[in-house]
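During the reporting period, our protein records have gained a structure token line. One record among many is quoted in full directly below:
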Amino acid sequence: MTEGPESNAPSTVASEGQTETTVDRVNESSATLSNVLAAVLSLGAVAGGVVGFLAEIPHDVRPFILLALGVCALILTYRNLLIQSDSPNAALPQQRRKSAYFQSLIPWLVLTVLAVVWVWPDSKGADQPKNDAKSPTAAPSLSAGAMSAAISAVKDGIRYPNPTGDKIHACITVSGASKIPAGFQVWVMHKNGTKDGPTGDLYFNVRKANPGEGTNKWQTEQFSIGDGSKDVGRYFWIFLYLVPGSTGDVLSALQDPPTFKESPVGSPVNARLIATIPVIKNDNICPKA
């Protein structure tokens, strides 16, 4: 009586069971490896997002980084889901399947967050000036001859006070009729002094000469000179300077009226002297402007 095939049945069943167990272990190991790689990818994406945001990776490079991370996430997702569907153990716990699906979504969630962070408008860019905007500190350029001609034109156009000397009220308006070169401003200030010249190193009542719209006329606001009736009959010296617009903008931002100390070179920074006018304070009257 032959019993060969029947006697081999138990061993065959045992062998198949061992094979399934081995396959499951391999699948579990592969799934674990995929999970580890997914975790590494997620951490790398988060770290890359933070570093990229702080290091300001150029915008034209970021899409390639996102594309590379997306391909890696796609491969890991495919491997993870394929392992679950090909497992010979059809009765995988539902909780384990849910966990696998959730783990497959992690790289995509991280990539989405990273993409939003990188694509979101950079608030710092709003505070930066446009590339074609002129620098506020850029001084206009004039040749020596053009500068000399511009200074002479403004000096010859002074209408009040008389450039050769004048008697004035306690409050005056310095004015003129001449073209101020583009990019420059005329500023007026005065010093205490004597008949022989100005004294001290302080400029008082620094005022901008405002050009008249559509004309070559210009004038300052009315400002006072001296200290009331105490210095009637005394000499003062009025200075007119041609300054770049950037320097004038700085002067405009000072206290009103600004008073500042003379620089070592004897004039305000970047300023060119137009004229100095000796005046005598004749009374303590401030005419109506």
